[in-house]
Amino acid sequence: LINHGADVNVKGGQYGTPLQAAAYAADIDTVKLLLKKHAKVDLTGGEYGCALQAAAISGNVDVVKELLDYKADVDNPAGKFGFPLQAAAVAGHLEILQILLDHGAKPNNEGGLHGFALLAAASRKDNGKCVELLLERRANVALEGGLLGSVVQAAAYGNNFSILEKLIERGANIHAKNGKYGHALQAAALKAEVDFFDALVVKGVDVGYRGGKYDTALQAAAYADRLDLVEKLINLNADFRIKG
After folding, report:
1. Is 63:31 a contact under the CB 8 Å cutoff?
2. What's CA 26's distance to the chain center, in Å?
3. How many CA atoms lie within 13 A of 72 on its CB side?
4. CB–CB of 219/190 below 8 Å?
5. Can you tell me the distance from the alpha carbon of 98 to that of 123, in angstroms, rounded to the nearest whole number?
6. Degrees (nearest 5) of the Cα angle 38, 39, 45?
7. Residue 172 in contact with residue 139, Cβ under 8 Å?
8. What is the pTM of this model?
9. What is the pLDDT along the chain (244 residues), one digit of tens a residue?
10. Residue 47, phi then psi, degrees to nearest 5
11. d(C-alpha 39, C-alpha 157), whole Å
12. C-alpha to C-alpha distances, 235 to 34, 203, 232, 240, nearest whole angstrom
C-alpha cells in the first residue's frame, strides 16, 4: 500500500493513525516500517490519542522503546487516558511505567479517565508495585480528579488494601468527597475486601455521607449483596431509611 502511494499519516477510525494501530497491536515490524517511511510519531487522534499511549496500554516494551528512539513525546496530552504514563499505570505495566518515567514523564500531569497516573495505578487490583514506583517518583497523593476522585477511592475500587496505609502515611485524604462513588467508603462497600472497609471506618470516615452513584455506602453494600457490610453499617448507625 505504501509503495502505491498510501499516506502513512492518514487520520481516522478507532486508532486514529496507522502508527497508533500498529502500536496497539504490538506489531513491532509494522511500527518500524511506518517510522522508516516517515510516519509522524506524535500525530494525535483516535481512542488512545497517540502511538505511545497505545503502546503503553497494550504493554509491548519493544514498541515503546522504538517510539521513544524516534523521540516520541512522553507527555503527549491526548486520548482516553490523557498521557502515556496514565495508560501504563492503569494497565499495570511496571516496566513501561519505569521507562516512561526514566524518559522524563511527569507523574503529576492531569488528564484522561483517571485524572492522574497514581489514581490510575491504584484503581487496578494487585498493582501495588506501580503505585510504589509512582510514589518514589514523587506522585502527589493529595491530588484529586478523574473518574474515582481521590487515590483512596481509587484504591478502594481496586481493592488494594496493601497500599492503603502507605497512601495515608504520605498524606492521602481518606475523607475526600468526589468521584463516581462520592467517597472512599462507598467504593469500598461495593468493591473492596472487609479489611479495607474496616480500616476506613476505624479512621473515622463518615458512614452516613450522601453522594456518588449509590448515594450512601449502605446502598452500595446492599446493591452488591454484601450482607456482612450491610450489618456493619447498620450497627454503625447508618440510616437504612434514606431514599436516593
Report:
1. yes
2. 21
3. 34
4. no
5. 18
6. 160
7. no
8. 0.93
9. 888 788 999 999 999 999 999 999 999 999 999 999 999 999 999 999 999 999 999 999 999 999 999 999 999 999 999 999 999 999 999 999 999 999 999 999 999 999 999 999 999 999 999 999 999 999 999 999 999 999 999 999 999 999 999 999 999 999 999 999 999 999 999 999 999 999 999 999 999 999 999 999 999 999 999 999 999 999 999 888 887 7
10. -60, -40
11. 39
12. 62, 17, 5, 11
d(CA 48, CA 164): 30
Rg of the chain's alpha carbons, rounded to an integer? 21
Q: Which domains does the chain have, with CATH numbers?
A: 1-106 (1.25.40.20), 144-244 (1.25.40.20)
- Closest-CA residue to 215 (of 176, 242, 184, 233): 242
User: Minimal CA–CA distance to 100: which of 132, 72, 141, 142?
Assistant: 72
Q: How far apart are CA 82 and CA 77, in angstroms?
A: 5
Place of cell 450482607: 227
**Stretch (H or E) spanning 201:** helix 194-202
Across the chain, mean pLDDT equals 96
Evaluate whether 12 touches 43 at the Cβ level (below 8 Å).
Answer: no
Taking the CA atoms of residue 75, residue 120, residue 174 and residue 138 in that order, the dihedral angle to the nearest 10 degrees is -40
